[in-house]
Write a structure and sequence with these properties.
Blueprint lengths: L3 E2 L2 H10 L4 E6 L6 H11 L8 E6 L4 H6 L7 E6 L2 E7 L4 H12 L2
Parallel strand pairs: 1-3, 2-3
Antiparallel strand pairs: 2-4, 4-5
């Protein structure tokens, strides 16, 4: 299951209007680490169906979004809840780290 791609409009809608608890992975098509992290997130996604959203932003297509969060590199996973930034992790990240952060965001 691939992650839903966001652009500026859908990003605003999901993060701020819906205030959905979610993560957004900022990545690039030709990034080697992204090619490992994104599939790992795609595998995790069904486990959180209906309670935590998984989204993706291509930093080359949506430069304004990545600049907004002062991201230094890709992949960067940014966590949100109630329209608030809840933290971010970057680089080669383990599944366990992502799950811990999701639990933290959801207050579990």
């Amino acid at each position: 299951m691939s992650l839903k791609q966001l652009d500026s409009t859908s990003f605003e809608e999901i993060i701020y209007d819906n205030a959905e608890p979610c993560l957004v992975v900022f990545s690039r098509k030709n990034c080697h680490v992204c090619k490992e992290v994104v599939p790992m997130l795609e595998e995790l996604q069904p486990k959180y169906e209906g309670k935590f959203g998984f989204y993706s932003v291509d930093v080359e297509e949506q430069k304004n979004l990545s600049q907004r969060f002062s991201l230094r590199g890709v992949p960067s996973i940014v966590f949100f809840n109630e329209g608030e930034l809840q933290g971010k992790v970057a680089g080669q990240v383990e599944e366990e780290t992502v799950e811990e952060k999701i639990a933290e965001v959801l207050g579990e």
